[in-house]
Design the sequence.
């Protein structure tokens, strides 16, 4: 596989992970309505990115699945992670911070992957690929800022009144 | 003397006038049976407290009782007119079931006690929790119906004294999006326009704003323009055939939850046809290119599919907006309580910015308020903002506020925006808030998903204090109930939706031991022994005028500057619009004249939020986007609502306030004329939907959502197909059950609504839920209890007209000059 192919494949995987993580966190915090609804709204951006990366991949000889993680795999994730995390912690509010921290970390990785792909596209003078980066990357940055803002909004109450 | 049945004709007699002319005066009054003006011993100056129009009025007093009201001819807002709620609502204050003594819970029952016992319990529990769990365990939830002085005192106690970030008002339910939309576009709250823009506009566009029912006097002003020479064109966006829709040149009835799509199509047409003021855009705004890109593909055809409105109508509406010379736009709950609330409301601001229509007569945006003193909760910092439109994310602003209050800036929580109500409820639910003080509002009826709210507020570990004038549904769950005085029984100021400040003077004594909210708050601060950093009392005032003077100092130099006002000056005025300073002693009619905004990074109230994610912009992000303090054009993509109809729940349920009732009916349900006009909940559906099922007017239906069930009688109205409407705020205080449904189906629309809110404004969504409807029993010959004079006008069956009769008749006195009556 070419290096650009590798970059697309990696980003496709990372966006898929991010979609799954947003959906999983949404499910885990159904009682926190903002996390629940926004988690689903923002997962949709990553799902769209996955689809567009799969389309772009075809031009580079790749065969990537255009369908991102869906709710079935999420339920599996919830079962896995839920068992793992609840075994360790007793205060569910702390899980919110844990999840936001993980979403932020994954989104930061995705953002950097978009940077790599955009730089590559520029070097290769691949206009279509560059346009894809310019259209999708802002969504990732908004997901990243959202996770940061949610963490800031929740941290004090969770840490001080626990 | 001329008179009219103001239940049957809520807007009264026409006084036509033309563009640029003064709206003729018409003085409305209603005195209780047998009382004439000659019998009135005293008139006390006030303004309306049952909606946000701010109609100036005088309260008639005889033998220490309120006996009626009369509009103020010289008031800038109403020119003497009053609406049905103004004319009749005051009667509730003398109801026999007013709270007259404090109550405390003993052995599960609320029992009468004395003030000392009640206040010691309240202050004692506060102190215990402060010691055990800290200020974040304390929350305050206030209203949009108190006075400025009370909000400011509450904000000082909460933010500056106790040091909690958890303060909000019920204006969150009605006005939060108005504030958020203004902050997104102008980086500052405050209404750009003025009610007088109606006098000048050649196009008036009303977005989700059934002004005929929510602000009847403002609608009279529009009707009088429509009856005069050169009437304005009207564009109406509403899924219901409201009185506004009836007279509109174009009525767009979108599927609920699709407002952003509709607005993007209108903006697409405006941009596409070049109906833009390029000079204005270049000189006074940032962000236009982003908007143009966002709406480029949003053609009327694309929007027509999503919104289910004819593309031709969208084109015609856009043409009217795009070719207007003086455009007035108003926005209310149809946008604010619906999906993507802030993005939709911001789009209306965008129309004005791209057309350069701000700050001139007739060129106004009125991002409306639902509650009469909503503006004060916002400017005083009692609703999720800091006092004086200070920016919580700007350390210099927090330092400045700390200087005004003489406290350490660390004492004022500013690590994030003050906690919004739905989050406060969440913190009560998870047990991290253990003390909640609720003043003048009734969340057990007004919040979404009532089953959840009742469970949250009934928790044993929560200490719930309710300060109100009646034993509301919420008060019935309280640990301590504090009997408050209300409008007419206390003095204070309040500010209406177009920044007009009125003084409301005490007319009569409150009943029994009831006390003004301000006195209760000052007493609370004294019992907590709240002090400033020099050891002086934190709350240094003892009465309303003292609080007003303190507020003036806090507002100095900020957009909502009151320093040029005083109680004496307000007594001699027909209402004064802030900012009012030494340089502008008569106030300021319109903001942003000549494109001057309050949006400089160092001065602005807010850096704004991402309208989809709700994430606040960081100071440096805002600074690089808008270094020179221009207006901000913000685009947003349409997203589908979170709850969509499906096979199990095939309808979209929308809810709303209607003409004869106001906030949980605590007052309007106790005013006979208003109560008789709309005595019980009803459900509206379209003729096609009803006839397809063989249902008729008055059939008893059950409406179900995943959250609950409500029973109501069917009104077949002109509402769009596939949509149900329930009037909200019918609760349980006037049913045998008391505070909730008695076992079976409920009556309150909010049994059904979803817990979801707009990410930017945090305003709950009351207008998009998926619902099922079944018939429980055919009608028994009685029509549904819905009025015939409003958006619920019947389209089938023989339904008697809603009338008030002699008891609903008010006098109308016309001035000799001006347009005169027709």
Sequence:
């Amino acid at each position: 596989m070419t290096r650009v192919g590798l970059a697309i494949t990696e980003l496709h995987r990372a966006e898929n992970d991010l979609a799954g993580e947003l959906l999983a966190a949404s499910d885990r915090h159904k009682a926190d309505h903002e996390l629940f609804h926004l988690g689903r709204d923002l997962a949709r951006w990553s799902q769209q990115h996955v689809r567009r990366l799969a389309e772009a991949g075809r031009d580079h000889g790749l065969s990537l699945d255009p369908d991102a993680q869906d709710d079935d795999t999420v339920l599996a994730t919830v079962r896995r992670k839920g068992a793992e995390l609840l075994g360790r912690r007793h205060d569910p509010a702390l899980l919110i911070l844990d999840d936001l921290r993980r979403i932020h970390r994954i989104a930061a990785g995705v953002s950097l992957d978009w940077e790599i792909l955009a730089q590559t596209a520029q070097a290769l003078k691949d206009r279509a690929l560059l346009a894809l980066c310019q259209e999708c990357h802002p969504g990732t940055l908004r997901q990243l800022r959202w996770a940061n803002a949610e963490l800031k909004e929740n941290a004090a109450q969770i840490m001080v009144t626990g | 003397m001329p008179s009219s049945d103001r239940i049957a004709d809520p807007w009264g007699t026409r006084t036509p006038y033309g563009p640029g002319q003064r709206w003729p005066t018409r003085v409305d009054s209603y005195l209780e049976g047998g009382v004439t003006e000659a019998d009135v011993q005293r008139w006390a100056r006030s303004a309306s407290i049952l909606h946000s129009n701010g109609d100036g009025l005088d309260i008639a007093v005889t033998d220490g009782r309120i006996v009626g009201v009369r509009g103020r001819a010289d008031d800038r807002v109403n020119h003497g007119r009053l609406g049905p709620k103004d004319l009749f609502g005051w009667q509730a204050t003398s109801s026999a079931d007013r709270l007259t003594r404090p109550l405390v819970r003993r052995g599960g029952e609320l029992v009468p006690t004395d003030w000392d016992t009640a206040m010691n319990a309240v202050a004692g529990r506060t102190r215990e929790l402060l010691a055990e769990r800290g200020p974040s365990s304390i929350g305050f939830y206030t209203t949009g119906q108190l006075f400025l002085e009370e909000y400011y005192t509450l904000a000082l106690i909460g933010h500056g004294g106790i040091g909690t970030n958890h303060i909000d008002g019920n204006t969150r339910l009605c006005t939060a999006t108005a504030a958020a939309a203004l902050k997104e576009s102008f980086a500052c709250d405050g209404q750009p326009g003025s009610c007088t823009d109606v006098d000048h506009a050649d196009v008036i566009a009303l977005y989700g704003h059934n002004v005929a029912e929510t602000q009847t006097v403002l609608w009279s002003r529009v009707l009088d323009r429509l009856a005069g020479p050169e009437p304005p064109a009207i564009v109406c966006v509403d899924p219901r055939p409201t009185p506004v829709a009836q007279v509109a040149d174009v009525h767009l009835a979108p599927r609920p939850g699709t407002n952003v799509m509709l607005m993007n199509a209108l903006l697409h047409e405006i941009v596409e046809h070049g109906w833009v003021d390029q000079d204005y855009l270049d000189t006074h705004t940032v962000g236009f290119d982003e908007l143009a890109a966002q709406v480029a593909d949003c053609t009327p055809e694309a929007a027509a599919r999503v919104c289910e409105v004819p593309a031709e109508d969208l084109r015609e509406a856009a043409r009217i907006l795009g070719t207007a010379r003086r455009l007035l736009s108003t926005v209310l709950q149809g946008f604010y309580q619906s999906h993507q609330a802030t993005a939709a409301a911001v789009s209306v601001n965008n129309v004005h910015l791209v057309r350069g229509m701000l700050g001139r007569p007739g060129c106004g945006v009125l991002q409306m308020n639902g509650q009469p003193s909503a503006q004060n909760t916002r400017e005083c910092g009692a609703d999720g903002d800091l006092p004086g439109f200070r920016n919580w994310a700007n350390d210099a602003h927090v330092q400045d506020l700390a200087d005004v209050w003489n406290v350490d800036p660390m004492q004022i929580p500013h690590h994030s925006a003050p906690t919004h109500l739905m989050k406060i409820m969440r913190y009560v639910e998870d047990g991290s808030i253990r003390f909640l003080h609720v003043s003048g509002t009734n969340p057990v009826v007004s919040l979404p998903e009532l089953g959840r709210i009742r469970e949250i507020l009934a928790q044993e570990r929560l200490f719930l204090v309710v300060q109100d004038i009646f034993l509301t549904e919420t008060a019935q769950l309280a640990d301590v109930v504090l009997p408050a005085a209300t409008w007419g029984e206390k003095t204070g100021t309040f500010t209406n939706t177009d920044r007009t400040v009125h003084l409301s003077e005490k007319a009569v004594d409150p009943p029994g031991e009831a006390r003004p909210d301000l006195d209760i708050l000052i007493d609370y601060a004294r019992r907590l022994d709240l002090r400033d950093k020099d050891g002086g009392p934190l709350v240094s005032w003892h009465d309303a005028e003292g609080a007003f003077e303190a507020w003036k100092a806090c507002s100095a130099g900020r957009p909502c500057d009151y320093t040029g006002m005083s109680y004496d000056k307000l007594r001699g005025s027909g209402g004064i619009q802030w900012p009012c300073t030494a340089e502008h002693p008569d106030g300021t009619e319109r903001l942003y004249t000549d494109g001057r905004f309050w949006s400089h990074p160092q001065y602005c109230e807010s850096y704004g939020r991402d309208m989809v994610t709700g994430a606040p912009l960081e100071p440096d992000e805002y600074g690089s986007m808008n270094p020179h303090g221009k207006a901000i054009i913000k685009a947003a993509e349409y997203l589908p609502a979170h709850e969509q109809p499906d096979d199990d729940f095939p309808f979209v349920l929308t809810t709303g306030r209607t003409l004869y009732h106001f906030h949980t009916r605590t007052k309007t349900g106790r005013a006979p004329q208003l109560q008789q006009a709309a005595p019980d909940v009803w459900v509206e559906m379209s003729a096609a939907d009803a006839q397809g099922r063989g249902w008729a007017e008055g059939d008893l239906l059950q409406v179900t959502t995943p959250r609950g069930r409500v029973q109501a009688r069917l009104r077949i109205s002109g509402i769009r197909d596939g949509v149900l409407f329930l009037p909200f705020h019918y609760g349980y205080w006037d049913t045998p059950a008391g505070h909730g449904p008695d076992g079976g189906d409920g009556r309150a629309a909010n049994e059904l609504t979803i817990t979801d809110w707009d990410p930017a404004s945090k305003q709950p969504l009351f207008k998009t839920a998926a619902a099922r409807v079944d018939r429980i029993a055919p009608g028994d010959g009685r029509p549904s209890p819905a009025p015939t004079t409003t958006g619920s006008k019947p389209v089938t069956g023989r339904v008697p007209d809603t009338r008030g009769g002699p008891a609903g008749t008010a006098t109308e006195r016309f001035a000799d000059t001006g347009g005169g009556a027709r």
In short: Chain A is about 85% helix and 0% strand. The two ends of chain A are 51 Å apart (CA to CA). Chain A has a mean pLDDT of 87.
